[in-house]
């Protein structure tokens, strides 16, 4: 993997900003209002190669690291955009890269890198299991040379804009395995090929995230699309979680920096009682405090990304980065609402949209309560709560 210098990182920031300049906030507001997928933006991002930076050069990507990837997503969100529309294309392929066979890597990674294939959907969450992933009940039963999938997933984003789904399903019932984390398997599901056996229903949510319910009725997956070993899928999903948390932290930091930028600008311009509102400590302090928190969270993101890129353990840092970034950004979001007063609610100012979008990261892809239990139990050695 190539190591970027400070100058390289700045160049990445500038280049991503230049692309984002072509997609102003009116673009994001309109897609949000119409609940439309930002197709043109994702195409531009793909064409410039930003979504394939984590794919090694031998498979058609740029072979960059987690820090560079994080900075790309951060800049998108800082510009007022929403990288949630494309972030999964960046990291979901990590399961194939780290645990797939050479044949799977050759078959999928170059096409994912070029954008010919979209691997934008990651199917984990189920209505009856929620955060307790080992309790999922979607099954994949081996029949001859294929697996037959039946069950239901919920909140699976971008399924309508993806060719492939990375799917976690039970291949051995929970009561027949020694450890509850065994018996789950990870698959590459070709959704386009299985349209007759998959029903996708959009879920109307408070943000434009193209999230859906997915029903599988005898959907078929050829055995060569099993990733790694049968029954070990949960381990493979866990190994991708640090990457996901670092990248989500980065997106959230981009939102946080957006709120601070906008709040500073507005607090300097808006004059009430014959003075700029930013002169009042009730307005100034929440902005300054969230700025400090966001800067500190950025250091933790950087640390987590550097450890990840060095191949070192980074579970604690990745979780802390996700927590600190999302909580400090939520503070900044509220500071922005305070700063903008009534205008914070007016759609044309964009704050309300970003406010709604920023709230998601406290909940998905993992809630901050679950992140906190990780720190309590795995880092501090406190008793397990589940
Ligand atoms: C817009 C959106 C997009 C999403 N996209 C995807 C996707 O693409 N793929 C996918 O697989 N999933 C996706 N999700 C699902 C998301 O990952 C889950 O919503 C999230 O992990 C929480 O699961 P849940 O909603 O079932 O909450 P629950 O598990 O029901 O939890 C509800 C609340 O209880 C708390 N809680 C539960 N157990 C404990 C405990 N032991 N200790 C402390 N607190 C606890 C939780 O922290 C939470 O606050 C998405 C969700 C949303 C809203």
CATH architecture of the largest domain: Up-down Bundle
CATH topology of the largest domain: Butyryl-CoA Dehydrogenase, subunit A, domain 3
User: Beta-strand percentage?
Assistant: 15-25%
Number of strands: 10
Taken together, the total number of domains comes to: 3
**What's the story with the biggest beta sheet?**
4 strands, mixed
Uncertain segments: none
The hetero compounds bound to this protein are: flavin-adenine dinucleotide
In CATH, the homologous superfamily of the largest domain goes by the name Butyryl-CoA Dehydrogenase, subunit A, domain 3
- The sequence of SSEs as H and E is HHHHHHHEEEEEEEEHEEHHHH
**In the CATH hierarchy, what is the class of the largest domain?**
Mainly Alpha
Q: Which percent bin holds the helix content? A: 40-55%
| N-C termini distance | 38 Å
- Helix/strand/pairing class, anyone? alpha+beta
Taken from the alpha-carbon principal axes, the silhouette is: globular
Mean pLDDT across every amino acid position = 97
Q: Gyration radius, to the nearest Å? A: 21 Å
Strand order of the largest sheet: 1-4-5-8
